[in-house]
Amino acid sequence: MKMKSCREGGAAVLKPSAPLAFGEKGEHYVVNYSFTSSLSARERKVVCVTSGNSYLGSHIVKELLARGYLVRITVQNQVDLEDLKALFKEEEMNGLESVVVAKMGDLDSLCNAFRGCHVVFHTSSFIDPRGVSGYSDKMAFIETEAAKNVIEACGRAAYVKRCIFTSSLLASIWQSDAVNGVVDESCWSNEEFCRENKLWLALGKTTAEKIAWRLSKEMKVKLVTVCPGLLMAPSFPYAHTESSLPYLKGGHQMLQLGILATADVIKVAEAHIRVYEAMDNGACGRYLCFERVIRRLDEAIELENELKMHGLLSRGRNEVLQEGNNEEIQSKLSNSRLARLVSQASQRLSCKQ
To answer: CB of 32 within 8 A of CB of 93?
Structure first.
């Protein structure tokens, strides 16, 4: 059984020439057009998730499918299609509208990928397999250029010009060697400080989000950004190693300053969707997204051990807390804006029921 590859502009839109059985050797399972649902038309809007094979992207896809949306995924390379078989169950694969191979650096292919979509969830420009050493100043530049292309493609091609943009808590916390006052959505990381300290992921996320905000105004794209902390599996301290390595550059200082926060990847995915669904009720701007702030040395060591990165946070000695004293470090972070949105959304849902 062969696949049809419909090349539209620069994007390869992969569609089956006949229904495929999940997991057939040598074939890319992409979409089953016999998908049926009793859900309302509003709930069945076509939405696009960039890098749907990434850690966060795949969880957003799962949550969208569970809510009845028709989901289009973009991946950067043909080989990434194989990842989908391992990430999604058969019934989830059946719910996909299509999978599009679209490079983040190719504006035309992104336009084709986004055409007809009611919203684009931009989750990741690329996946960095080498962690701290692999994410360089060059990658920060690529991250920013990709953000420009995504917003411009939304403005040119999306059916409804809306984008939920995944930034990072790192784009808010690195203001200087000290934290003065509460860190919330009004705070931005200092780009020069990030450069001087080679905090490349923080720099990339900061510059990418800023360019997204600037260009969204020019392109009249309704933009909301979600800024998650260190992504974790559903239970602490099981962090996602690949995404943890670049995030924790400067982790010891984060711990000292009370700004090292973690977020359950499933709840981060849910937050993206809640923010999107609340846009008609006024959701806008930035939302810091985290659940837990690491405030004790024993928690930091527990996280280090899970990641097999011994001493990265604690430096192998009790510098943060006095010996034998496990007092909590004062947290400087606030996620009250997202908490209010979630609470209001829950109230609206209960009123409808």
So the answer is: yes
